[in-house]
Amino acid sequence: MTEEKAIAHSNDDQHLVETTVSSEIMAQGKMLTVRYDEARLPNGVISGREYVTHPGAVVVIALTQTGSVVLERQFRYPLKQVFIELPAGKIDAGEPVLTTGQRELLEETGYTAQDWVKLGIQHPCIGYSNEVIHIYLATGLSLGEHARDIDEAMDVFVWPFERVMQAIDAGEITDSKTMSAMLLAERYLRKHPLPGVQV
To answer: Where is the Nudix hydrolase domain (predicted)?
Structure first.
C-alpha cells in the first residue's frame, strides 16, 4: 500500500481528534441551535468552535415509471432565490429516517412509493454543522394529493434523469443535496438498471 493510501485508510486518527473542553448555547431556534465550544486540539492548544446543531434530514430521488425524476422549485429565504431541488425534509424527533422520507415525499409532492433503497448519507456543511442527510431512491410511484405545511410553497414537476444531470452540469441545479443524491443514484442505476431510466 502506498503512503497516500495508508493515510486515507488509517484506523488511528487520535492525532487529529479535538476534545470538547466546554460548550454553551449561543442561540436557540425552533429547529437549529448555535453553539460555541472550546476544544483542545491535538497539540494541546485550546481553540473556539462555533457550529449549528441540526436534527438531520432525508432527500428522495423519486423515479416515475417512465424514468423521470420528481423535482421541486421553491424559494430559499437565506439566499433569496428559487432553487430546483429533490423532495427533502427534516427528521422529526424519534422518527425513523425512512418514515421521514416517505412522509416528506407525500406531503410535498403527493407521491407515494412502493420500493425504497437507501443509497447513503451526506454531510452537507462539515465545517459548521452536524447535519446529516440520508439519501433514498424511491420507485413504484403512485400520485395522490399533497399535504404541504402552511409555510411551504413550491412547484412540483418531473424531468428525465438525463435532463437533471445536464442541469447539474450546466449550473441550473446548485443545491448540494440534490447534486450528491443524483450522483449516488446514477452510480446505483448503472449497477442496477431500471426499465425506462437512462443514466
So the answer is: 52-181
